[in-house]
Amino acid sequence: MITFKNVSKSYGRQIVLDDISFEIKQGEFVVLIGPSGCGKTTTLKMINRLIEPDSGEIYINGTNIMKKNPVELRRSIGYVIQQIGLFPNMTVEQNIAVVPKLLKYPKERWKAIVRELLELVNLPYEENAHKYPSELSGGQQQRIGVLRALAASPPIVLMDEPFGALDPITRECLQEEVKKIQKKLKKTIVFVTHDMEEALKMADTIIFMNKGKIVQMASPEEMLRNPADNIVREFMGRHIRDGETPELYAEDVMRTRVLKVPKTLRALECIDRMDRWEVNSVVVVNDDETYAGTVSLERIQKQGKPGQGIGELISQETPTVSRHSKAQDIFDQLLKSPCKYLVVLNDDRTVAGIVTRTSMTKAVGRFFWGAEVS
Amino acid sequence: MNFIAFIYEHHAEILTSLLKHIYLVVFSVAIGILFSIPAGILLSRHKKTAEKILAVVGIVQTIPGLVMLGLALILFGVGNTPALVVLSVYSVLPILRNTYTGLTEVQPGLIEAGRGLGMTSTQLLFRVELPLAVPSIISGIRISTVYIVSWAALAGLIGAGGLGDLIWTGLSTYNTNYILAGAIPSAVLAFLFSGLIGGILRFVTPRGLRGNAA
Question: How many degrees, rounded to 5, is the angle at CA A6 between CA A5 and CA A10?
Fold first, then answer.
């Protein structure tokens, strides 16, 4: 689908890409990774001719892209840029419809596309289409950025460190969403990152670059098993499993970044905070920071009254465990419990963190691939 | 004679001068806008030469108004034309500079996004860059207008009329009433224009930008 043949590029004396050749198959999720200045972003931007090679050829479906009109080429390729790619003067709808409008789709058609895409990421059209980017959270903004790239159904989507500026929780959500969308719509995605965890999670194939050359192009499993050289090994270091696996306890598998709210918080404000954190349940603490219970969004919506404190809505259904409990027991409990998470308590009954399926999965990942901090 | 009576007696003259003043301001700022916005767009495409040209325009701006009027008098004679030429020249810099800054301060990420999505440079200009620069451009027009309201008072010196006429008459005959009848309306005019353009600014700022611009 995308073929690079002996592509080179230099700025003055600095060689950015040194005789690169590779091929990306249709429907593949390819991640370009490497230390900064390795040429990964340059490689990505060559695919839509934002940067042009000094020598060598790039083919998309057998056609040399240098023979195509760059504007038309770009309209046929989705593009998600780092951080703030949304136009602040346009609404969500206008942003998503940029390329369909450039392609002169009739109004009904691009409206339908916007509606459909917003549904794809569970953002209702009525509530969101007419908002401006400044009214959205960072995670929502980048979701719209992804949708905008998909709007004219391009077979190829380029993503340039799209989630670099997001907090870990939102990033994880978006990674999952993009992966889901890619599988569902069968897109070929070229994705640049410097985060090996992200690469391992998303990629069908990882292209590891350094100093303008491709060091290794392989599946994540293969790269973990046989890193081509020390730089690759170093990059993956914390993911490669070595030696004995230690016994895990609750404190090793929990997430410490948890939304804790005081008992006295009003229902409306609580909903607001949950919204901002993009969670649907929170841990409630007493005045002395000890654990009081949990409150779910559903419960507030069903039983809460505006202005009322959340104290009366607290539930004790969420299981609690000590931070010294064995991870294995927690694992069983989590699978059996109808609750989506467990609360981990310190010895003085203050909240240490929560264990979710995701934090548990991560811990299992660590178990296999060695120590990793996130 | 007290001031109120003076105004009553001379209201026709004051009104004519006021209208003439407004005409001078609106006309020269309009010329300034018509010249500066396209020029600002052009400069933003050639950033290296832009700084030099803006520096030169800045120097022209520092030439005292009287000197400019004198020069214009030599070139165009007495009356409207020299006044309009000089005022138009003075209205250029704030609009030009603000157009240029507004356009060059659009975040590079947005330009890249626009290009990457397949906008031509004209589409990028009209759909992204100009809308984002509008608040800055309008602020430039506002500065320019307030500025020209006061400069236009000088135009009376070379027979272009306006409130300046009243002020100069007052100054040369030691008549405070004339001076006030010229000065107060000019000050009020400056406030009104500034308020009006401020209103326009709020109106044309894209909703998504309000709160962090203007």
Answer: 130
Residue B116: closest CA among A334, A51, A246, A205: A51
A79/B117 CB distance under 8 A? yes
In chain B, where the domains are located: 3-209
Place of tokens 């003075």: B90
Question: What's the pLDDT tens digit per position in B133-164?
Answer: 999 999 999 999 998 998 888 888 787 788 88
Task: Please answer yes or no on whether A79 and B109 come within 8 Å at the CB atom.
Answer: no
Dump pLDDT digits (tens) for A271-324. 888 888 888 888 999 888 889 899 888 888 888 777 778 888 888 888 888 888
Predicted model pTM: 0.69
Q: Is-contact A89 A148, C-beta < 8 A?
A: no
Give the chain B residue whose CA is nearest to the CA of A81. Answer: B113
Q: Are strands A351-356 and A341-345 parallel, antiparallel or unpaired?
A: antiparallel
Query: Residue A83 and residue B109: Cβ atoms within 8 Å?
Result: yes
Interface contact A75-B211, CB threshold 8 A:
no
SS3 call for A114: helix
Q: Which domains does chain A have, with CATH numbers?
A: 2-239 (3.40.50.300), 250-369 (3.10.580.10)
Cβ A126 vs Cβ A165: under 8 Å: no
Q: What class has domain B3-209?
A: mainly alpha
- Residue A82: closest CA among chain B residues belongs to which residue? B109
* Cβ atoms B105, B136 nearer than 8 A: yes
Measured distance CA(A272)–CA(A198) in Å, rounded: 30
What is residue A284's three-state secondary structure? strand
Contact present, A139 and A173 (Cβ < 8 Å): yes
Task: Assess contact for A106 and A185: CB atoms under 8 A.
Answer: no
CB contact under 8 A, B113 and A102: no
**Residues of chain A contacting B103 with CB distance shorter than 8 Å:** none
Partner-chain residue, chosen from B118, B120, B208, that has the shortest CB–CB distance to A90: B208
Q: A186-197 burial, b if ≥16 CB within 10 A, otherwise e?
A: ebbbbbbbbbbb
Is-contact A184 A178, C-beta < 8 A?
no
Residues β-bridged to residue A58: A4
Chain A interface, mutation test: which of B117, B125, B128, most A Cβ atoms within 10 Å?
Answer: B117
Structure tokens given for A280: 């649907």
